Amino acid sequence: MAVNISEKILILDFGSQYTQLIARRVREGKVYSEIFSFNIHIDKIKSFNPKGIILSGSPSSVYDKNAPICNPEVFKLGIPILGICYGMQLMTRILGGRVLKAQKREYGRADLIIDDDSDLLKGISSELSTPNSKLRTTVWMSHGDRIEESPMGFIPIAHTENSPIAAMRDAVRKYYAVQFHPEVVHTPAGVKIIHNFIYNICGCIPTWTMTSFIESSVSKIREVVGMKKVICALSGGVDSSVTAALVHRAVGDKLTCIFVDNGLLRKNESENIKETFKRNLHINLRYVDAKRRFLKKLTGVKAPERKRKIIGREFIRVFEEEAKKIGRVDFLAQGTLYPDVIESTFFRGPSATIKSHHNVGGLPTRLRFSLIEPLRELFKDEVRFVGKELGLPEDMVWRQPFPGPGLAIRIIGSVTDERLVILRDADSVVLEEIKKAGLYKELWQSFAVFIPVRTVGVMGDERTYENVIAIRAVISQDGMTADWARIPYELLGIISNRIINEVKGVNRVVYDISSKPPSTIEWE
What is the Cα–Cα distance from 30 to 175, expressed in whole angstroms? Predict the structure, then answer.
């Protein structure tokens, strides 16, 4: 369900791990951007009607046998183009310049010397500059090829010790290219460079805001739905919650949310969801207590994949049963986000990281609903801003990702009532102390894991033989890669002491210091 936007930047993806970052940087400048596969048909580019095009980087060399190459007609559209890294090399090759293997591969931070700061590199504050010297700034390089000879009409505008043409331009055709990555945080002036391109060269006006998105989406949803009914599977996560709030603003009581309590939620979670949506936001909410049903199906099941499949299958059955009780429904609202769309439909190069999905599977096609996916053009941070604008509670807007199978995959082995109680109480302590320390928003995820390994302990004058709780906390931008969080020892000590003292059945707490890859964020 596309939103009507006039100021747009199109990004051609050649497989770079940073492509989504480019799109985010453009949107941070309040200009809408979308990512398309490098081999998209030229007519689709024309129909998108972009005010500028950005060519992404790639793990490939332009001389590789199967190197991704866009249609050369892209360079006949009369639209400003910015090539980044591989995008610069591809632009050079297509337009008649020369690209050669560099004698020395350039990777990491480099000192960029600016030879012309009149347009793309205008206004760059340079931490490396000295009086009476050329402007210099730090950039992030990642390439094995370099530009030996620029195409006709281009002039170099910056260089490094290893790259005589680290940035170039053809001001007449408005073609620009940089050998480095302006989209990453390691290029301090990178955002300014991207803004110079979208504002000064492409002439975009910064009109893409979450307020304008909400207004446009509400109007579109009303137009599509009319007097018909919509249902939404509500999990309490950010994506489904914002979807529900947005659709409700558009169609009011024609929306019914179905919340299935599978017994695998965190402490007090079902009560909080009911309170927020039914009493505070006045949304039609059907609460389904299916706790015993799910736990019975999981009895004795230890394999993680079997757990996921059982939970996913049972969720679909429960949802189907509830949907039929409502009567005729034409639309299903889902919280699909833009990264989901990219991963499922777009070209990804060899650098793309395999993402392990922990969410419940999609609903069956036999339900025959028309889909409403109002967030499918947004990144997670944009979704949070929409949630704030719609008046959702702070705790819900900033809620960390939670797996669809819930606590079932945070209990190693069989899921039982006793283990769920222990894990809920331990997890509650972790979240409470993380929030109290002001770290919750900084972390991608923070949670407890139940490990059914009994270890010896001493409590009072007695020896104990109890379970282990692992604490997992990671930092990440999108969950595709993650690093373990360097939580202060003092905080870990507080969490450990509280869990051991307050949670019956635990006498040992450990901290997980593995990153993704090679580990995953979840333990199962």
Answer: 22
